[in-house]
Write the structure tokens for this entry.
Amino acid sequence: MASRYQSLKGFRDTLPEESLRWQWLEGIIRDQMRRYGYGELRLPLVESTELFSRGVGEGTDVVSKEMYSFLDKSDPPESLTLRPELTAGAVRAWIEHEIGKNQGLTKWYYVGPAFRYEQPQSGRYRQFTTFGIELIGSPLPEADAEVILAGVGLIESLGIRNYRLRLNSLGMPEERAAYRVALLEFLNARRSQLSQESIRRMESNPLRVLDSKKEEDVAATADAPKILDFLADESRAHFNRVRGLLDDAGVQYVVDHKLVRGLDYYTRTAFEFQGLDLGAQDALGGGGRYDGLIEQLGGPATPAIGFGFGIDRLLLAAEAAGAIPNQSAALDVFVVGLGDSARAWAVQTTRLIRQAGLAADCDLLGRSMKAQMREANRRNARHVVIAGDNELAAGKAQLKDMQGHAQQEVELGDLLNVIQSREEGG
RNA sequence: GCGGGUGUAGCUCAGGUGGUUAGAGCGCCUGGUUGUGGCCCAGGAGGUCGUGGGUUCAAGUCCCAUCACUCGCCCCA
């Protein structure tokens, strides 16, 4: 409050205590990805603006009003954008490095920040952290199932139980175009019952009217035509196969024909994981198939499917589920030195203990013994080593067990060995 | 971009109808043990009451503006 500078709206600091929670979550993600066979992709935070406007879609909210774009200092200036999502960058990298020529199937994952200029609220920030996977090269429903199952696996291993998996098929472009015509016809007939927002959306992206939370829209679209009825045999068979694979895996899901994703590139399978303990921003993650995107960005026509999760929201959901373990950065040893030369000795001894692989610390504020003991306690130190100048002259120090209060005198030469055997013992 | 709520100590919050030295709990510091933590006791530091303006003899309290945070719409992660 007294500080002159504050973090920007929608941007946050993560302090060390909170970072432990992030590390916990990221550890689970990395372990999952190792088991599922995905390699980590690290992408630039900034890409050319055109990559996103072409890849994500001009008409999407993300591109039309939420991007952090700016001109750089080159001549002529180039328009760059802080990535609002990572799929476009991943696809760009895949094309750029000609990955398809070396392997039939690519399995990538990534974790990192993305940026969107939006009004922040619960679970929504201008800088948020995404975890996503991309499975590139397979048109088969088995690939869809693998990706969805990876999402289920992650959510469950985070201890999140109160969630819902929604599934839909958006069809191929020609199927969607036919549906769009039918839907527009239906909506036009009920124009007067729709909200202003939805009427506006009929122009830009009529499918998204189905997604509205406004009561009048929900009522007006209750009997809207379903896209699933517009699927040709191949898309229908694909969808049914995906469902069958999920059924075989015992995964619970609901088919929701109103599930429409906000990004233009999806084809056929679309899905979303909804966190039931979250606020209005309840999409834990979502994704789908994007068979046309790679070609659209100048690569070889290649089918692909992926998802993106919001780590911020996963954390909120895991917390609501009480699944986040209590973690403390416990100290193995705190070294208390009393007197001038003993303080110098404490610095050296702390270093030796650290070099032996244990977590050790000593006082750096010139504090009294009592204050140092308090610090040791506050830091959850298992052991405390105490020595004064006279003791050191005699070649000895006190080793105290902070749980059992027991204290013993130890020869300086034996100190490290004694501590190590105690730490191993428990 | 549009609505609702909230801004008082590091944190969580009290402070009827304006009245003088602005409080509590937790945390922090010191002491009670001239070299021993946690519990307890005593003491202490720490606040331009978000900011600016206005009304008034007098504003944390009333009015206006503004900023920030927060929740929701929209959209998504």
In short: The radius of gyration of chain A is 28 Å. DSSP finds 15 helices and 16 strands in chain A.
